[in-house]
Write a structure and sequence with these properties.
Elements: H1 4-39, H2 45-53, H3 63-91, H4 97-123, H5 132-158, H6 166-194
Helix pairs in contact: 1-2, 3-4, 3-6, 4-5, 5-6
Length: 204
């Protein structure tokens, strides 16, 4: 039979493991709950749930963190698309496609910059305390930059009207993904505005 001291230490060790496991599960459940409830009425609900549920950042516990995560996802997609478009620009040879690709590279570059500014505005957004004017200013900035990014995504695709081919299909696929996650991000930002930025903590 094990000595009492060892049994006591084993009991403490087991309790710590159970507490840690339970805590992690609760945090995950809280994050999943707020993601699912917030994504229900997003522009692209399934995409919203899929991208935010697999978000590798800190656990999401309130609406501002959710909006920030959505913008980070959009920014990541925009940066990936920018790299792909830059590579296509160096190899495209057709006269009709070249100007469209060049313009699209510029548009996606602007979109990356605007999404970065959006994220900056959200980081400075005070969800409790502070003046209403300060909140409105930061919210207006976030909404404006996110809307501008979405417009640039759409403008990129406009340049390919009347052009067919593999390049157009690839660019459309990349930019459609960026536009959709950006649309979802803008929705999350607008939800902050509707709630006056109050945190919505989901408790297990």
């Amino acid at each position: 039979m094990a000595p009492p001291q060892k049994l006591f230490l084993a009991a403490i060790f087991a309790a710590v493991i159970v507490a840690t496991t339970t805590g992690d599960g609760s945090n995950n459940a809280a994050g999943e709950d707020i993601v699912h409830s917030s994504c229900m009425h997003a522009s692209y609900p399934s995409l919203c749930i899929r991208t935010l549920s697999t978000y590798s950042g800190p656990t999401i516990t309130n609406r501002r963190e959710l909006a920030q995560a959505a913008v980070k996802i959009s920014l990541s997609h925009a940066k990936a698309a920018a790299k792909k478009l830059a590579a296509v620009r160096e190899t495209v040879g057709k006269k009709r496609e070249k100007p469209a690709v060049v313009d699209c590279v510029e548009m996606i570059g602007d979109s990356v910059d605007e999404l970065s500014r959006t994220l900056g505005a959200l980081k400075h957004l005070r969800i409790s305390g502070g003046s209403v004017n300060e909140f409105r200013w930061q919210m207006s900035n976030a909404q404006t930059w996110a809307s501008a990014a979405l417009t640039d995504d759409d403008t990129c695709l406009d340049g390919f009207q009347g052009i067919d081919g593999e390049i157009k299909s690839e660019v459309k696929e990349w930019m459609t993904k960026v536009a959709r996650v950006t649309s979802n991000a803008l929705y999350m930002i607008n939800q902050l505005d509707d709630k006056r930025g109050k945190p919505h903590v989901v408790r297990p």
